[in-house]
């Protein structure tokens, strides 16, 4: 890793660090029963569910973690944290957060958001 080409501003000596992503809750989730998937579900497994079974998947620096599944909830409450171990400062500059509907047939993404680490961290020695 000594020969790794680092971008400008990234020190050659980097320390391992833990990145904590805390997932609190979600609100205003859309009704999913109007989708084509709902019709497929009804045809395949005789289930026509109006409710979602949401969970959150977080991806960062090639790693993925996810919360528990909250059954039949449009206002899920998690209060869970996902921990990533990565070099600091990380070369990956964003965290992908996706809320998904857990399903027997196929998990469906409800919404995706990216957090730019450069917008939420400090300049200088303590941040990037």
TrEMBL record:
The keyword Cell membrane does not apply. Keywords: Membrane, Repeat, Transmembrane, Transmembrane helix. InterPro entries: C2_dom, C2_domain_sf, C2C_Ferlin, Ferlin. SMART domains: C2. It is a single-pass membrane protein. It is found in: Membrane. Pfam families: C2. Residues 1-128 form the C2 domain. GO terms for cellular component: presynaptic active zone membrane; synaptic vesicle membrane. GO terms for molecular function: AP-2 adaptor complex binding; calcium ion binding. One of its GO terms (biological process) is synaptic vesicle priming. This is OTOF protein. It comes from Donacobius atricapilla.
